[in-house]
Design a protein that fits this description.
The chain has 3 helices and no strands. The protein is mainly alpha-helical. The chain has a domain at 34-109. The radius of gyration is 41 Å and the shape is elongated.
Amino acid sequence: MAAWFTVAAPLIPEILRLARPYFTRPPPQAIAPPSDVVALQITELQDVAAQNAESIKVLAAEMQKTITSLQQASMTLEQRLRRAHRLSLASLAVAAVALVVAGAAYATAA
């Protein structure tokens, strides 16, 4: 006989005692809940569904506010970007004029 069997033999009755309820338990379909429990569960589910509907309405209103504020912020940032673009073009023009003036001054000085 294997050496492990002599070690495991005293534990076999305990393992069988713990495993027996899992093999002798009736299937869940065999246990039918009473009709009042089903009615109570239906009522609870309806209440939860109503709460979910209200929560969804609140969430939709908050999302609409968020989207509106994001659109306003986007428009403001777009205006600032246009202004910065115009300023950079004006700075480029001033730099070009300064380069031309510096080149002309260098040409006349030489």
